[in-house]
Amino acid sequence: EDKVVQSPLSLVVHEGDTVTLNCSYEVTNFRSLLWYEQEKKAPTFLFMLTSSGIEKKSGRLSSILDKKELSSILNITATQTGDSAIYLCAVEADAGNMLTFGGGTRLMVKP
Amino acid sequence: DVKVTQSSRYLVKRTGEKVFLECVQDMDHENMFWYRQDPGLGLRLIYFSYDVKMKEKGDIPEGYSVSREKKERFSLILESASTNQTSMYLCASSLAGFAFFGQGTRLTVV
Q1: Model confidence over B30-85: pLDDT tens digits?
Q2: Does B89 touch chain A (CB under 8 A)?
Q3: In this complex, is the C-beta atom of B54 within 8 Å of any C-beta atom belonging to chain A?
Q4: What does the DSSP assignment read for A52-72?
């Protein structure tokens, strides 16, 4: 059965810190890995990664995929209190955009 | 170990059938949510519930209804399934801003 595991489960940091969130997966016929941020009711799409070793960046957020290690990391630099949210990782496998979600990492950024 | 369990991983139903998607959480959370995920559209909220027997419409409630008779169970109902409801359905529960997601149900309506 396909599996996506995120770590840590939760994280508390102070403003200005840099954080690294981890996502590892075991799926059949990997197609892509997606990162979402959930602050309110519906998660917001952040990144889609399909190729190993290519970093995607958006402001203070960046992410990279390692297909050899079956994992991805999401980095947030110079964290702000507004970054407090749940960060979700999902992996698309096989045809038909079947997604498997990890349990999420709950990030809290304190002033 | 916290858990949100969706009753089926894969479902295939015929047009016009009534479809029930079940979600159970074991964390005593008050808030539960149903989303669907489609390519290029991200996750969209269908319905959510803040308490037993309470429900509120999300962004795309048309064609769906929900039931929350017990705190741990939140059901999504497709009264008459249509092909445009073929999608990935995701359930979540949350407390104080911390959400946990199920593994998703891939529904195909033929």
Answers
A1: 889 999 887 656 678 899 898 898 899 988 999 999 999 999 999 999 999 999 99
A2: no
A3: no
A4: TT--EEETTEEEEEETTTTEE
> A2 with A92: CB under 8 angstroms?
no
Chain A touched by B59 (CB under 8 Å): yes
Q: In what order do the strands lie in the sheet with A61-66?
A: A3-7, A19-26, A71-76, A61-66, A56-58
Query: B100 and A99 in contact by Cβ < 8 A?
Result: no
Task: Report A:29-58 residues touching B (Cβ under 8 A).
Answer: 36, 38, 41-45
Whole-number pLDDT of residue B37: 81
User: How confident is the model over A61-99, as pLDDT tens digits?
Assistant: 999 999 999 999 999 999 999 999 989 898 877 654 556
Say whether residue B71 is in contact with chain A using an 8 A CB cutoff: no
Asked if the C-beta of B37 comes within 8 angstroms of chain A's C-beta atoms, the answer is yes
Minimal Cα distance from A97: which residue of B? B39
Q: Helix or strand or coil: residue B7?
A: coil
Test mutation, A41, A83, A99, chain B, max B CBs within 10 A? A41
